[in-house]
Design goal:
It is a single chain. This protein has 105 residues and is mainly alpha-helical. It contains 4 helices and no strands. The protein is globular and about 45 Å long.
């Protein structure tokens, strides 16, 4: 199955998503709807599957359950898609002790 194109992110959102924050517990910025990396991580984990399923459904509305189980695996779903989209190449800054060249990143 062909990979669904990744979402287009505004520049402000890309800064929050791909730049490791100095202070992960910083207060939300009311002027920036993309502030709050922990909040974004939580929302992303909750919303990525329904968004992906919606895209798959629009492309193949008659897809069967067996095929859905193959294209939307439960284990490592986000990691597999992030790898396929090569998002690791966009990340700027890592926590102490994390090797950015590790295949696990």
């Amino acid at each position: 199955m062909t990979l669904v194109p990744p979402p287009n992110l505004p520049a402000d959102a890309m800064l929050e998503v791909f730049v490791y924050p100095e202070n992960q517990d910083s207060a939300l910025d009311p002027a920036n709807p993309y502030s709050g990396s922990r909040r974004l991580e939580f929302l992303g984990r909750m919303l990525i599957r329904p968004a992906y399923l919606s895209a798959v459904w629009k492309r193949s509305p008659r897809i069967g359950a067996d095929e859905l189980e193959v294209c939307v695996p439960c284990d490592r779903f986000m990691e597999k898609n992030a790898t396929a989209y090569q998002w690791h190449k966009r990340v700027r800054g890592y926590p102490d002790g994390v090797d950015p060249d590790s295949p696990d990143v």
